[in-house]
């Protein structure tokens, strides 16, 4: 018999964006990544970018959803550039080349989905 407790059914990850700077402070001239959730079906990493910082072209091993939660970014996927602001998001399949550039300070979440 399996137990279905609240702890097994959901996990509160964040109540607002206000605590982001404390949880994952920006680093001058760099980006800073911090895993904020790790579950069986998904993982979420928050990445804080200082101004004029790029996360160079790379691939993820699983499908991802990237969401902008602060500032603006330029998201490049397979050579196409998409400007994304707060609330903007994009889905990318596994093993697809992509990059992120922040002209101004920005913060994103990357949700890694189970393959």
From TrEMBL:
Residue ranges annotated for the Cupin type-2 domain, each copy included: 64-109
Superkingdom in the source lineage: Bacteria
InterPro entries from the UniProt entry: Cupin_2, RmlC-like_jellyroll, RmlC_Cupin_sf
UniProt name for this protein: Cupin type-2 domain-containing protein
């Amino acid at each position: 018999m399996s137990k279905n407790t609240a702890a097994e059914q959901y996990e509160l990850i964040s109540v607002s964006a206000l605590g982001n700077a404390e949880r994952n402070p920006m680093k001058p001239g760099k980006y800073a990544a911090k895993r904020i959730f790790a579950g069986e079906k998904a993982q979420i990493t928050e990445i804080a970018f200082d101004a004029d910082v790029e996360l160079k072209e790379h691939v993820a091993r699983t499908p991802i959803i990237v969401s902008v939660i602060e500032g603006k970014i330029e998201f490049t996927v397979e050579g196409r550039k998409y400007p994304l602001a707060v609330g903007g998001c994009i889905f990318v399949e596994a093993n697809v080349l992509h990059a992120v550039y922040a002209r101004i300070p920005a913060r994103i979440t990357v949700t890694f989905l189970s393959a």
